[in-house]
Amino acid sequence: MYQKYIKRVLDLVISILLLPFILLIMAICGILIKLEDGGPVFYCGKRLGKDGKVFKMYKLRTMKVNAPDIRNPDGSTYNAEDDPRLTKIGKFLRKTSLDELPQFFNVIKGEMSIIGPRPDLPEHINYYTSYEIKKLSVLPGITGYNQAYYRNSVEWKKRLQNDIYYVENISFLLDLKILFKTIIKVLKREGVNSEHYPEKRMIEEVGSRK
């Protein structure tokens, strides 16, 4: 009942109520992004959604235009505090998670939930085990179990294990815990980077990265 109906209603009500504040913050951030390098305000990246459907996830751009796509050895997105690809305002947006605000529009469109597993890149579906693919049985979230407790401080396969734990234990109480834990994590700016990886690899040159 909660997962099938109530969760979606709460997503819509909360997103619509927050919309005026989200638009105001996005407008301010957008001006700062434009003033820094004149590039696009938004980054739209393809992500895996529920049942493996690919959708465009919205973010405020935090990287320089035409920055190279760098991945960790496990194929996950590389994050580091000293990442030279980040713009000045981008570093602030990443630390405060304000770059994720446009995803409330994904929530309103029904492509995401406020709370759920963070969406992976489309090619990651090729690396899921038959058990891990269970992650795709629910809508991905703006924040989730990983974001609340670890953020980017654990490797991708461990994140998948945590995602499955969430899928198998979805409840209003768990979502509430995740929400408050996420707020604390963001305020403390913990686990923002994935610097536990000993090396990184460049995948390809792409335009207008995150």
TrEMBL record:
Bacterial sugar transferase domain: residues covered: 7-188
Molecular function via GO: undecaprenyl-phosphate galactose phosphotransferase activity
Pfam name, any one: Bac_transf
Record bears the keyword Lipid biosynthesis: no
Keywords: Membrane, Transferase, Transmembrane, Transmembrane helix
Domain of life: Bacteria
Transmembrane regions: 12-33
InterPro entries in UniProt: Bact_transf (IPR003362)
Family: Belongs to the bacterial sugar transferase family.
Name listed for the protein in its UniProt record: Undecaprenyl-phosphate galactose phosphotransferase
UniProt source species: Caldicellulosiruptor acetigenus (strain ATCC 700853 / DSM 12137 / I77R1B) (Caldicellulosiruptor kristjanssonii)
